[in-house]
Design brief:
Helices cover about 10% and strands about 40% of the residues. It is rod-shaped and about 215 Å long.
């Protein structure tokens, strides 16, 4: 044969070997031919065999006596035993895993009441009922399973005895192989069935010893046995407590059948041995739990790794979530399944068509979550978060302007809040309301709140509603709106907006309602009304000063300089002249003059001064001499002529007087010239004195000095 042909032949041999190994690895063991429950016994020559709990949950598997269902999933066992329906058992076998993929796995199946002992590859079955030992022997020898003949069980090793005790007899009395009759002698027991028929394993009866190779029999007898009680106990059974005892042939028990091939060989027809590699499920993880890339990077590959390559394909489902939006909005990737081909140790999921838009979105995430692995197990890193980092600046939020205004007659107004750029997120900011105008429906309606600018929009309005057009003069009033606490944005420069409600009423003037008034001195007080031309929402005030002819401080009245305040929403108030004094002095009419100045929140009207006249209620006093004539001797050097008032006056009262008569003045007869007499205020008399009357030696006869009053005043 040519060398090239030899090479070609070797190539096909190697290729066939490889393809055969793949074919073997991809086909998991399954069983058939059972109508009831199936008992499965699995062992491995290396490593551990196990199931994921999720894979067998709901299959209704159970563990036979002596085994635990928890062993199936703890990941440390080299032997698993369970029972289930044929369908559910095959489902479980398709999910069987091996820890390393090295060595072989043996899977033995039997009816659910038939136990398999891996050490000798034999099957064991407990037959329940009431059977004599003769019936038990006959029945066992007539039975067969899996192409193997049955016989009454022969316990040949400590392990087999323990297996029968733990896994088979189920805590009942059951006949087993062993007798000291027939070919054996009293007290010397041997097997009377199966491949070990006629072999002696015990000699010497009670207190005897086990034959070579059967030493475990030294420790399995019940206390005091064998005792051949009554001289008729020649056949052996396992007791309810798991010890050995001799009994009569007529006693009835359960019995245990053992199945093996010719001469006790292993039964192979119900055991499949496979390469463990086909059951090795590598661990699958993301390479990292997170990664990131700028929005300008159009694709991102997220890598997965297997702990080892296998001869079969591996697949895993993945779900896509996160804050970024798929379907081409931010990226393109849907839920799906990743397949890693045989021989590979990894793969990748690609986030495609990442959109570099002009919107500010903030960092956004694409979260990939693994589930439902096939031919692999999930490791600890089953979630990967890919962050699309934002390359636009976070927008600022601010008012479009710092101030605006509108007439009081405009019932509502919108204050615009802008973003420096659009965002895919809603952007909000709190706002507080201050200013000189009063909210709550008094001047307007707007309370503290939050403005939200919807995603993909760049502005929205804060609306001042129900602006009240009242008849009050309030002056220009302000509503100040201040932004704070932005969410998904930063504050810009215009964080406060002042809206001015411009007044459409004229500023009121303040004045006296009249310029004059009067009242009798007997009226103790008088209100002088100050009026506004219209109401105002603020207090209006003006200073006032007091002048006039009347005397304050309690003399004629009580009122000092001061300030009058007309309360908001009212149109008048009074200045009160109090404690007007009704005395018995004649004062004449007196005035109290009140003059307004320095108005606040108003202008002065025309009537800025008011004169209040206190009209006199006493009669003007009469001025006269107390008598029309008087006389005295020339030797009296002076004479006082009394001038009286009919009543006191609050002011000095004066009168002119002229001097005439027959006597000569100027010192000749007397001294007194024309003059003025003054009667002081609050007094009622005074004197005019004729002084220096000359007592001469001349005879002159009686002489007169005539004083005449005129022009009274005061």
């Amino acid at each position: 044969m040519k060398r090239s042909a030899v090479k070609m032949l070797w190539f096909f041999v190697i290729l066939w070997s490889f393809l055969s190994s793949l074919a073997h690895a991809t086909t998991h063991t399954s069983i058939s031919g059972y109508t009831g429950n199936v008992r499965v016994h699995i062992t491995t020559t290396s490593g551990a065999i196990f199931f994921d709990s999720a894979d067998i949950s709901g299959l209704g598997l159970s563990a036979p006596t002596g085994y635990s269902l928890a062993d199936l999933t703890d990941g440390t066992q080299n032997e698993l035993v369970f029972v289930g329906t044929q369908t559910n058992v095959n489902t479980a076998l398709s999910k069987l895993q091996h820890s390393s993929g090295t060595g072989t796995i043996s899977i033995t199946h039997s009816h659910s009441n038939v136990a398999f002992y891996p050490a000798n590859q034999h099957f064991y079955e407990l037959i329940t009922g009431s059977f004599t030992v003769t019936q038990a022997h006959a029945n066992a020898q007539a039975m067969s399973r899996y192409g193997a003949s049955g016989y009454l069980v022969t316990a040949t090793t400590q392990g087999e005895w323990d297996f029968i005790d733990d896994m088979v007899h189920n805590g009942t009395n059951a006949w087993i192989s062993g007798t000291d009759t027939g070919v054996f002698s009293e007290g010397n027991f041997g097997f009377n069935s199966g491949p070990e028929n006629t072999i002696t394993f015990w000699t010497g009866g009670n207190g005897g010893s086990a034959a070579s190779g059967y030493g475990f029999y030294n420790s399995v007898w019940s206390t005091g046995n064998p005792d051949n009680h009554g001289g008729a106990e020649h056949y052996l059974h396992i007791t309810t407590g798991g010890s050995l005892n001799d009994n009569r042939a007529t006693t009835t028990f359960n019995y245990i059948v053992e199945y093996s091939g010719a001469s006790g060989q292993a039964v192979t027809t119900n055991t499949q041995t496979v390469n463990a590699n086909g059951y090795f499920w590598p661990v699958m993880n993301f390479g990292y739990s997170s990664s990131s890339g700028p929005e300008s990077t159009s694709t991102a590959a997220i890598n997965l790794t297997l702990s080892a390559a296998t001869g079969i394909g591996v697949s895993v489902d993945y779900a896509v979530s996160g804050t970024a939006l798929g379907s081409g909005v931010d990226y393109t990737l849907s839920d799906g399944t990743l397949t890693i081909p045989s021989g590979s140790t990894g793969g990748s999921i690609t986030i495609a068509s990442i959109v570099d838009d002009s919107l500010f979105e903030g960092d956004e995430t694409v979260i990939l979550t693994l589930s439902n692995p096939d031919n692999a197990t999930l490791g600890s890193t089953t979630v990967h978060t890919y962050t699309i980092t934002e390359n636009e600046t976070q927008p600022t939020i601010q008012f479009s302007s710092g101030s605006s205004n509108g007439a009081e007659s405009v019932s509502s107004t919108d204050i615009t809040v802008n973003l420096s750029g659009a965002s895919t997120q809603d952007i909000s900011a709190d706002y507080t309301i201050t200013g000189t105008a009063t909210g709550g429906g008094t001047d307007y309606r707007l309370a503290n709140g939050t403005i939200t600018i919807a995603a993909n929009s760049t502005s929205d309005n804060i609306t001042i509603t129900s602006i009240v057009d009242d008849s009050l003069y309030e002056g220009d009033e302000t509503i100040i709106i201040t932004l704070s606490n932005p969410d998904n944005a930063t504050l810009g420069a215009n964080t406060a907006h002042t809206y001015t409600i411009t007044e459409n009423e004229t500023q009121p003037n303040i004045q006296f309602s009249s310029t004059t008034s009067s009242g009798a001195e007997a009226v103790s007080s008088a209100d002088i009304t100050v009026s506004l031309s219209g109401a105002s929402s603020t207090d209006i005030s003006a200073d006032y000063t007091i002048t006039g002819t009347a005397t304050g401080s309690g003399t004629d009245y009580t009122l000092a300089d001061g300030t009058i305040t007309i309360a908001a929403n009212t149109t008048s108030d009074n200045i009160t002249i109090a404690s007007i004094v009704d005395d018995n002095l004649y004062e004449g009419d007196e005035t109290v003059i009140v003059t307004l100045s320095n108005p606040d929140n108003a202008t002065l009207g025309a009537n800025t001064a008011h004169t209040y006249t206190i009209t006199e209620n006493e009669t003007q006093p009469v001025l006269q001499f107390s008598s029309a004539t008087s006389a005295n001797a020339e030797s009296v050097s002076s004479a006082s002529l009394q001038v009286t008032l009919s009543g006191p006056s609050a002011t000095d009262v004066t009168a002119n007087y002229t001097v005439t008569g027959t006597a000569s003045g100027g010192g000749t007869d007397y001294t007194l010239a024309d003059g003025i007499i003054t009667i002081s205020a609050n007094t009622t008399s005074d004197n005019i004195t004729i002084a220096s009357i000359v007592d001469d030696s001349l005879y002159e006869g009686d002489e007169t000095v005539i004083v005449t009053l005129s022009a009274p005043s005061g």
